[in-house]
Amino acid sequence: MSQFIINNWMLFLAFFVVLVLLLHEPISQMVYKIRKVSPLEVPKLTSRDSAVVVDVCETKEYKLGHIPKSINIPLSRLSQDIEQLKKYREKPIILSCRSGNRSIKAAVTLRRNGFETVYSLSGGLLAWEKENLPVER
Fold first, then answer.
1. May I ask the CATH architecture of the domain 33-130?
2. What pLDDT does residue 87 have?
3. What is the Cα–Cα distance from 66 to 55, expressed in whole angstroms?
């Protein structure tokens, strides 16, 4: 077996890289206690818990369509503009993007900066639209 590994070290390296890439998101969610929320849960959280929706899409994408009353802070600027969110530190924050991938990265950034209750919109705006929820354009 060890000779097989030695002879095929590139294959094992590629396998390891793919494994790390696949497990990165779920591990980040566990370590930083990031919860996913479905589109149908968002209105409940915003009305019951005064949650704030932050869209981390780039400005051009945001203008094409976003969740009503969401705040746009692009992921590329989140670290620099995090001060804008400090006033919401005590409230739940729901992060949204087009598909849900960038919102996980943004959630990690917020948790590292002391935000306690951080959600990622599962499936992003695509899932939101699929549920026929309102979109502001």
1. 3-Layer(aba) Sandwich (3.40)
2. 95
3. 7
134: which 2 tokens? 């309102």
Q: What is the DSSP letter of 91?
A: S
The token pair at 72 is 């746009």
C-beta of residue 82 within 8 angstroms of C-beta of residue 6: no
Q: What are the extents of the domains in the chain? A: 1-31, 33-130
Q: How far is CA 23 from the centre of its chain?
A: 15
pTM (2 d.p.)? 0.82
54-74 pLDDT, tens digit each: 999 999 999 999 999 999 999
d(CA 33, CA 24): 14
From 54, 56, 93, 97, the catalytic residue:
97
The residue written with tokens 């699929």 in the block is 130
Q: Which residues contact 114 (CB under 8 A, 6 or more apart)?
A: 89
In 3D space, the residue among 50, 14, 40 whose CA is nearest the CA of residue 134 turns out to be 40
Where the chain has pLDDT below 70, the residues are: 1, 20-32
Distances in whole angstroms, Cα of residue 115 to Cα of each of 85, 91, 101, 133? 9, 9, 19, 27
**Residue 57 appears among annotated catalytic residues:** no
